[in-house]
Protein 1
Amino acid sequence: AEIAVVGLQASGKTSFVNVIGSGQWSEDVVPTVAFNFRKVRKGNVVLKIWDVAGQPKFRSMWERYCHGVDAIVFVVDSIDRDKFETARFELHALISQPSLSGVPLLVLGNKNDIHGHTDVQGLIRALQLDKITGRPVSCYSCSMKSQHNLDIVLQWLSSRSH
Ligand SMILES: Nc1nc2c(ncn2[C@@H]2O[C@H](COP(=O)(O)OP(=O)(O)OP(=O)(O)O)[C@@H](O)[C@H]2O)c(=O)[nH]1
Ligand SMILES: [Mg+2]
């Protein structure tokens, strides 16, 4: 399956790819410039992953990397409520692109190892995920640090392969 990982800066996209790619968790990850590409083998599934940068100047590139993938993974920092509104805006702007119609969407509420994080119900409300139609949409709360829920995330991604 080919997957694009997008979301605001510091939400944990590169951490996600590192953890599922090599099991490697680190506190210091450098902010991504443009994108990284990585191939990850899980059982008999190969995931081709575009890890795209989240800083504002890179967001106009998201659509290009999402075009033609089997799934879009949108990572949210579930502790950083001040950024939910921007995340909602960027997510809806992205998926409203005609070129991305119907592409399955997985929203990850990351950093749930931190006390006070927003749960799945809160994320669905804050990001208005219930307004998204015409594609499969799932939302999980997870942590790259503790690896909580990464098994179901991988299962979801593997089921997108053909
Ligand atoms: N506590 C905690 N910190 C996390 C988690 N995931 C990522 N981080 C931290 O969040 C910071 C940003 O992580 P990155 O993976 O670089 O974020 P990114 O989304 O790739 O950022 P850009 O490349 O700038 O778009 C790093 O300091 C990580 O260690 C998590 O699950 N829990
Ligand atoms: Mg990154």
Protein 2
Amino acid sequence: MTSQQLNKINSLSERMLMWVLLSCTFDTLLLAGFAHEGLINGRIAVLYGALSLFFNGVYYVLIKSGFNRRFKDPSMTFLQLMTAALMQVGFLVIAPEVGYLFLINLFAVYAFGMLRLTAGWYLASWLLGALALSIPFHLVGVEIAFPITGHITKILVYLSFILTLGRCMVIANMLGNIRRGLADKNQELSIAMKHVQELATRDALTNTKNRRSLEELLAVEQNRFQRSGSPFCIAILDLDGFKGVNDSFGHAVGDEVLKAFVQIVHSQMRLSDHFARYGGDEFVLVLTDTTVANGMTPLQRICDETAQYDWNQFGEGCGVTASIGVTNYRAGETIDIAFQRADAAMYAAKAAGRNQIVASDEPGYVTSATQAIARAARA
Ligand SMILES: Nc1nc2c(ncn2[C@@H]2O[C@H](COP(=O)(O)OP(=O)(O)OP(=O)(O)O)[C@@H](O)[C@H]2O)c(=O)[nH]1
């Protein structure tokens, strides 16, 4: 148990002791009232008050001195419960004329136990309580009374019931606090879990999805394709000349370039697409519900935006472009095979002079460079 947990237990135990002491004080006053009415000897009220003070004092000293930390249950709930229960049974024997009071007190005593006792300890305390109660009920043969003998005793009995209900309210409030604490802890835990999940699926530098998350998303898209035939294509985007940026301007500038590139892609992609950092200066864009034929337009925009971006803001002469390889996912193949095709296409784009798109094997979309040449020839 951590010292923070122990401190919490101690503060709860101290609060409980205060309530128990207050409760015992009321009982002592009620007993004094019954003594005044001649139902019991006045010394019984004094003894009840003195024993309450003594036992609560002992537990207070144990808690304050830290001695309770040596126990398996530092709250000492079982010990306190048994002390209180046996005290009630003892007084039931010596003052059966007001025996109802000690019997209803047992409810409050056992209810306090609910705050901390495990089922096993609760069962043990119940069995011990039952055993102890057998003494006044069976062996001693005392007359346990409900002492309404006049107007005053009626008020005293009424007060004792009201006070018992009050004790139940205090216990309900403590249980409510425990429940609220648990609910708060649960919420904190689920927020922390969400955060951990975010960290596990996000790239820390660029805040895009990471490779692990990409693999999961690709598996989802593959399933969707198999179920509904919804097409998707995989594009691998690799920066050109990024090593040069790092070498000339430093790693920190390189990081800024990566983040800016992510912004460019985010500004051009659809919300339903998936974008992830694969590693280093290599990224993957999964275009959902899209074939390469349709995907070429946003990819071309990314290529163009990257080439036209004001990289000089990071340093005079700083600049990168993007080479992109893209392929359709084909029925029945593994993601790995599609990935290899996209990778080969990306290397083809590099080999063809960088800053362009190569579609793996789509007729009519060999490279964006050939499209540009065709456009120029038409013009
Ligand atoms: N600043 C920064 N650099 C990184 C990070 N991860 C990898 N790199 C660097 O990125 C560079 C990637 O190398 P290359 O892909 O060969 O560089 P390139 O100049 O773009 O080469 P081509 O792709 O052939 O155009 C290496 O120098 C890595 O050290 C990162 O998180 N931050």
